[in-house]
Amino acid sequence: MSTSATLQPEGLPFWLDLHRPGYPSLDYDLSVDIVVIGAGISGLKLARCLSRYGLDVIVIEAGCVGDGASSRNQGCITYNVGSYGEFAKTHSRETARELWRLGMESHRCITEQIQEYEIECDYQVNGVFTFLRPDTPGWQDQLESFRTDCRLLREDGFDAKVLDAEEIQERSGSPFPVSAFAHLEAAQFHSGKFVTGLARGISNQDKVRIFENSRAQRIQRSGDTVKVQTAGGVITAERVFLATNALVPQFVPGLEYGLRAERGQVFVTEPLPERPCQGCCGGPLAWWREVVEADGRFRLLFGGGRGRDEPDSLFPQFTKDGDPHPLLDKEGFSPSAEHQHRLETQFAIFFPHLSGVRITHRWGGLQSFTCDDLPMIGEFDSSRRVHGIAGLSGKGNCFADVGAEYLAGRAAGVESDIEVRYGPLMEKMLRPGRDEANWDSWETTH
Ligand SMILES: Cc1cc2nc3c(=O)[nH]c(=O)nc-3n(C[C@H](O)[C@H](O)[C@H](O)COP(=O)(O)OP(=O)(O)OC[C@H]3O[C@@H](n4cnc5c(N)ncnc54)[C@H](O)[C@@H]3O)c2cc1C
User: How far apart are CA 185 and CA 405, in angstroms?
Assistant: First the structure.
């Protein structure tokens, strides 16, 4: 191992190594228009949009704001959903174009929130670079596909560029990649500062209350209302919005085959003498970005180290008795020695010149992936009036905002701008329970 490890046993993400404002826990019964379960970006954005329609909203969070994937990620804002050309072939050029535009809408919403709530979250448009590595067999074919994607995107009026070896090596700070697909309008931010800033901004609004350490235990229909039970009290609401990410099947088992719980792992270096790269880079088995420090120095955040079906990264939802699987909560958010070692092996390939740097933070993050890599946004269970956003498939910053705008409008009985422009697309491509989202060989019990 080239790096010197100080594994933090609790796996504190670098993004959460800051002062976080606290919120009370729920210790009484109450009635409200809407209850949102989960205070990550999806839940908070839902609360923001719902309250703008005048609805009273309660957000309940099992731990603290941002404890989930929202503060455990790479923090890049991109709307790349795989190969544009392939997507256009499988669906249609029009669908590919609309989906890209939908991602742009989400990016616009994020910048709007940053401005409105004055969130200082180191937002920067530094680009996202999908690179090719020379040790991947057939990387030249992939380069051809990048060129096609780039041509099609540009024809459709979007920004895209293919970088040669010299360009990507300069951007990525690594001598290893041989080429890259560049999305130069993509951005990045400090995920922890963003999600905590969003919560602060939303909680200042009259219509929203946030409760921490208030885990939802049960959702039950009761006449014309829905009751959500927590250890401290029961909330009676007209509707429930689930924003619990990989844990959605715990409440809606019918979605379990389409929402695969996968753990990613990450580490962050100590501050480095020189800026390590510029922008978010990602490719097979490795991704990274720079993180700016208050004193102007930079760290390197590095993740990856797993193939898509890596067994030690997949988590079952239920025990054979049908109970929530304890591994999900216990290990889903922790770093493991084996995976961290794989990360270090990749790090040594890409950053041989950083051999020996100290790693200060290591963590794991659980998220949910659908088989078609597109989220589920809509009605999860009509009988209990449960709606939600899940299966963001590594692209929460691309879809959570438009999902929240769309669902909030529907809850309020108002046709939102997003629904007018993208309703048919969302109904067709992002519908919860669609067959295309289901994994064939995914063991949900263990
Ligand atoms: C390693 C990694 C890298 C990623 N990189 C990127 C990236 O660069 N760009 C990008 O767009 N996306 C990325 N993602 C994905 C992105 O982080 C997620 O899509 C997004 O954060 C999901 O937000 P969420 O609010 O839906 O879920 P979470 O942030 O996971 O929030 C769910 C919340 O629900 C709470 N909860 C769960 N059960 C209950 C309950 N019973 N009662 C109350 N609360 C409950 C949890 O405690 C949690 O706070 C990455 C994810 C990971 C793990």
Answer: 22
In this predicted structure, what is the pLDDT of residue 23? 98
Q: Is 373 left (phi over 0), alpha (psi -120 to 50) or beta?
A: left
Give the per-residue pLDDT at 324.
Answer: 87
Residue 329, pLDDT score: 82
We report the CATH number of the domain holding residue 102 as: 3.50.50.60
Q: Give CA–CA dist 53/58, Å, rounded.
A: 14
Shortest-distance Cα residue to atom 16 of ligand 1: 396
Q: How many domains does the chain have?
A: 1
The pLDDT of residue 356 is: 95
Question: Does the residue 340 lie in any domain?
Answer: yes
The reply to whether ligand 1 has any atom less than 6 angstroms from the CB of 324 is: no
Question: How far away, in angstroms, is 203 Cα from ligand 1 center?
Answer: 19
**262 vs 316: CA distance, rounded Å:** 9
Return the residue whose CA atom lies nearest to atom 35 of ligand 1: 38
Site to substitute for ligand 1 among 128, 230, 244, most atoms within 8 A of C-beta: 244
Quick: pLDDT tens for 128-146: 999 999 999 999 999 999 9
- Closest ligand 1 atom to 43 CA: 25
* In a domain? residue 374: yes
189 lies in some domain: yes
- Enclosing domain of residue 92: 4-437
Q: Following DSSP, what letter does each residue of 48-102 receive, concatenated?
A: HHHHHTT--EEEE-SSSTT-SGGGSS--EE----S-HHHHHHHS-HHHHHHHHHH
pLDDT, residue 283, reads 96
Distant-in-sequence, close-in-space partners of 309: CB < 8 Å, separation ≥ 6: none
pLDDT of residue 10: 62
pLDDT the model gives residue 444: 59
Q: Which segments in the chain show pLDDT lower than 70?
A: 1-10, 441-446
Atom 19 of ligand 1, residue of closest alpha carbon: 396
pLDDT in tens, 161-174: 999 999 999 999 99
Residue 179 is predicted with a pLDDT of 98
The per-residue pLDDT for 308 is 87
Nearest to 43 by CA among 67, 27, 19: 67
Structure tokens at 342: 């794989």
Is the residue at 89 inside a domain?
A: yes
**Is the CB–ligand 1 distance for residue 226 below 6 Å?**
no
Q: Report the alpha-carbon distance of residue 347 to residue 170 in Å, rounded.
A: 17
Helix, strand or coil for residue 218? strand
